[in-house]
Amino acid sequence: MFFLLSVLFAFNLSAQSYETEFQSRAQQIINYVADDYKADASGWYNCNPSDYGKYNWQIAVACFHKYGVNNAKANQYLPHFNTPSCISARFHFNLAGETSIFSKYWDAPSVKANVKDYLTAAWNRTDSYNLLTSEGTENHLAMTRPSAYLYAQIALDSFPTDFPDAQQKLDSAKLWIMDWSKTLYAAGLGEWNSSTYAPYGMIGWLALYDGAKDPDVHKAAQAVLDYYACEMALHYTQGIVGGYESRNGTGYESVVTGSDYFSWLWFGDSPRKISWAVGTQNMEASTAVYAAVSSYRPPLAAVKLAKKQLAKNVMYYNSKGEYLMNNPGAVKQTFYIGDTYTLGAAYLPYGGFTGGDSQFQAWKFVGKVTPDETNAVKTANVIVGYGSKEWNKARHRMPWDQLVHHRNVLVQLTKVPTNYDAIYSQIQTSINNWKTSWATDFNKRFPNEGKGSPVNMSADVSNANFSYMAVWKKNATVNRLLRNNIEFFEMDSNYVAIRSIAQTAPTYASATDNYALKDAATQGNLCGLILEVGSKNEYASFVAFQDAIIANSSLNKANIATDKIIYTSAKGDVLNIQYNSSGTFIEPLYDWGYGPLTKQLAQKSPPFVQPKWPSGEGYGRVASWSVNGTAIDFTNSKWNVFDGPNLQLKNSLLRLNDGLTQTLEIDYNGNLPVYTPSNYTNLEDNKVPLNDIKIYPNPATNLLNIELISNFMGSYIVELLDLNGRSIVLLSNRKISNRELLQLPLPEKLQGLFLLKVKTGENVVTKKVQIE
């Protein structure tokens, strides 16, 4: 009993400590965006680019949150962008910021004066950027459809006579929200693990979580955000997205991308001091303000997973659907959490021929370092790679690359086929036909819009039979040594060995930011590089690691002419590998599909389709291999969305555990996500005693004060209902101090006797309120 109480006490202490740390990080972001981000008004993006809200709305959010609804700076923005040219140019990114501001800061003078104009502008659009049938990438829809719900909620509550179809649009938006969130738990994201677009995939759901009055919609938003938190936590390592990415940036240093800042806000664990420069436009950091002001918090077990405090030296076998979340399991992924590093790879069925392939990161190594709070640039170690082109960025799914990954070993294979010219010509013809099909069907859905085709042939397709790896050294500790034709690297906490497959030794070059390694072969022959990692905890010295690699690892190339190699690692794992030059492929669909002739609430495939692609020699995309005689099955088995010791998502049931005290289950097999335990809150479950809640004035007119006085810390929900049980106002918040005051604005023209509920977990306090 003493042990159990000690564990529970430590858990509660950890949850309270987390909130204190979170608020500290959140305040840094809020302060920067409110006071220092583009401080000069002349730095505003006016209506060019069309997604000006991507750069500006977060300033208003931060200022309103920090200084209140009457803040002059915050109130400049809505009138400034309320012009015909801005309205006609409005793009997906603007909507999430608008509805976040309108939902949170309703009493701001500029909101009162402009909200109806913004609502009308959004409501009346019928082009491909409209609220309910707009088309775009996954993050575009995740900003637009939740915003459609919140705009419809505003219209129904505040301007019902001006927008008589508000209920219809609210119902349509809810239908999309419930369907998309449920599909997410079946297939996973299409824009998985994206360091660039994950924040834009989340900000609409954050606004929905905080602002939706419908408890079902609120619960769906929580389930989506919990999914994101789990995916980000699994792959996060000291300020960097690890493993693999769909639509990545150039995140090869700690805490530089939008996803890095979101993760740092939620999880902390940066190796460097986060600094904020006055007057800079750090858009990546500024977007995180939406999470900083939200009441949403990730599950505590996700925080521990992100800090790599849970099971180590373990493999995760994950999968995702195709881009529009159809065909679950199409993209296989392996991810290894070592003692002091992570290493992961995605096995992409995509061809690599279109511009849609340009932002894939197929694999990444991230090595942990000793944090230094005095150093503003120190970064975790990173290694990336791919074939043929732009080796120092590795931002593309190159057509001729295939990967093999097991635990601490990554094998990168490249082989440009001898029939390259014929393949290129055939694919170019298919893409030209795709352009025509897309334009024909799009113009039937949105006549006279004149939108240019997004479909294009990738400029990165190359016949150069090279395979590259880049060992990043900028702001990192990296020492290099060539021994026995193997490149060895000593890092802060790890050792790495890289050898060639075709050449005797890798070709080496040193650039400003990285060490570049290359293996090459003549066209039609296999080349590539093999990476093996060892933690410093496992070896007495750098020399001891080198000796182990030289003595115990080996590469058997006896059958390389038939694209077969066998690699034996220093730890004794035998990888028998076959490069598959023959096969089939698809392309990522994004919003490029054709087929439907009418506008669609949801973009799904089918009905959206892509061309039927050629198959055979030169079109293979995924290697085959076995580990110690056991084949890795890519063809006959459906891998789960997540599958490892601390995180699983199988058959729409997510399980997250910290291996000790906390297990969360989210079951989305029904119409709503079901949480187990049912009273689970994202940091801890606490009770609010009845006599610790004060409500005044009562009777109230336009504002109700709700005062919580207790040592309870955590999430709570406040809901105002009429006597028929209809929800009038629903808010979620977090209590972070012993005495906390929540001011609840009351809708205009509301009179009579109402019920006020304050809920934490299963504990509900209900009080009567008279509104005059």
Topology:
Elements: H1 2-36, H2 53-67, H3 77-80, H4 84-88, H5 92-104, H6 109-124, H7 138-158, H8 166-187, H9 198-211, H10 215-235, E1 236-237, E2 240-241, E3 245-246, H11 258-267, H12 283-286, H13 289-292, H14 300-306, E4 314-320, E5 331-337, E6 341-347, E7 360-361, E8 363-367, E9 381-387, E10 401-406, E11 409-414, H15 420-445, E12 466-472, E13 478-483, E14 486-491, E15 494-500, E16 507-510, E17 514-520, E18 527-535, H16 542-552, E19 554-556, E20 564-568, E21 574-578, E22 582-583, E23 616-617, E24 624-627, E25 630-631, E26 642-643, E27 647-650, E28 653-657, E29 663-667, E30 674-676, E31 693-696, E32 703-709, E33 714-721, E34 727-735, E35 739-745, E36 752-760, E37 763-771
Summarize the structure.
With 772 residues, this protein is an alpha+beta fold.
Structural class estimated from helices and strands: alpha+beta
**Biggest sheet, in brief?**
8 strands, antiparallel
Q: Total domains, how many?
A: 3
Strand content: 25-35%
What strand line-up does the widest sheet have?
4-5-6-8-9-12-17-16
Strand elements, count: 37
Shape: globular
Tell me roughly what share of residues is in helical segments: 25-40%
Please give the count of helices.
Answer: 16
| Amino-to-carboxy terminus distance | 53 Å
State the low-pLDDT regions, or none. Answer: 1-13, 683-688
Averaged pLDDT, please?
A: 90
Q: Over the alpha carbons, how many angstroms does the gyration radius reach?
A: 27 Å
Structure notes:
The protein is α+β, with helices and mostly antiparallel strands and 772 residues long. It folds into three domains: 19-306, Glycosyltransferase (Alpha/alpha barrel), CATH 1.50.10; 314-422 and 457-640; 690-771, Sandwich (Immunoglobulin-like), CATH 2.60.40.3080. It is 30% helix and 25% strand. The strands form nine sheets. Strands 4-5-6-8-9-12-17-16 form an eight-stranded antiparallel beta sheet, with no helix packed on it. The chain has a six-stranded antiparallel beta sheet with strand order 10-11-18-15-14-13, with helices on one face. Strand 26 (642-643) and strand 27 form a beta hairpin.
